[in-house]
Amino acid sequence: MSKFVIEGGTRLKGKVNIGGFKNAAVAIIPATLLCPGKCIIENVPKIQDVKVFLEILRELGAEAGYINDTSLYVDATNVKNCFLENGLSKKMRASYYLLGAGLGRFNSASSLMPGGCDIGDRPIDQHIKGFEALGAKVEITPNGRIHVRAEKLTGAKVYLDVVSVGATINIMLAAVYAEGKTIIENAAKEPHIVDTANFLNSMGADIKGAGTDVIRINGVKNLKGCTYKVIPDQIEAGTYMIAAAATKGDIIIDDIIPKHMEPITAKLKEMGMGIEEYGDSMRVYYEDELVPVNVQTLPYPGFPTDLQQPMTVLLSSLKGESTVVEGVSEDRFKYVDELKKMGACIEFTKKQAKIKGRNNLRGTVVQATDLRAGAALIIAGLIANGLTEVRNIEHIDRGYEHIENKFMNLGAKIKRVRDE
Ligand code: EPZ
Question: Is 35 a catalytic residue?
Fold first, then answer.
């Protein structure tokens, strides 16, 4: 077990390179199961969730591994079924994509219910609704194992009751070979939905409309291996943008798609941050005292729920009051108790936080309660007086590549220390 020890008080300066999008990579990697052939996936972040997925694919009989630091290969030719017998699926949320991919390729799949961040109740009823519409039977056993199977998959119209990233992708995976046309209405529009659809199309699928709320999938007979490059991580980039604002810094964020950053760029500008956009990079710089703003998280193109926690830290460091409303996750303010230990003045319910600033945070020992909460606590440590110890950092390693090195390169005083 390791922890991060952070000495606060440094303004971030310099350049940070952003890696491939975690939430796209963890959809594209299982999507390779759909094709009997070799896929090469480039710009993949070297994070724990990706390593676990490679283990899962090998467990299912695929050949899979890293080619270099950022590229990996998967050859699922010899995979015979998608029944994951062990508990690896409990290690992350995205393991639910095994169900869609297995259903698509083999007409059946089985795994334990997915794990992932504890951010409230995270049902998968919309995934199931989609699978059933295509003709599958879904059974969940009392010990939490899900079985999906179909005699035959036939295209259908699915209206999602909730805008769900996971359900949208899972239905696309299940429908690529389904006979006829599948239409997903009220689909999620996140950049990683588009990226996954682009990957599937590169393998030979026929998917149109990804990035809008109606996605049309014409079933195809065959898919073939391909080489594909994952898009930059919108949430990793947003984390460094917010860290720059919180530390009154001046940084260049490189290897990004500025368009994907708009919901964050707009809020930071409203607060008074300077932002200059270039082709695939941006400069984020502090000019003058920032003003507090209200934030509501929403599905894309709204402000992302995955940046709610870092944003709350930033707002608590500003003079004045602000409100953060969580419009996506069911219960994503648990980490606020840790921030309060550092001196933050925040009242919260499951859905809303009322922040009274300015809080001069002080360093202490805090626990990362989930991935983005961990990133938020690092930012809190960067602006706190004294030393902050962030524990349970295995949550952070699930989704951020070399986070301490990237912060160190920006001048932060942060080190990874092995716990005794
Ligand atoms: C994805 O989770 C991401 N995870 C999450 O990122 C992210 O917070 C979330 O999308 C929202 O953007 C991955 O991509 C692996 P949803 P997912 O289905 O697919 C409700 C991170 O920090 N819902 O879009 O689980 C659900 O309860 C992680 O990187 C249903 O009610 O999210 C939630 O309130 C954390 N029924 C809302 O919809 C369903 O069947 C959005 O969930 C599915 C979802």
Answer: no
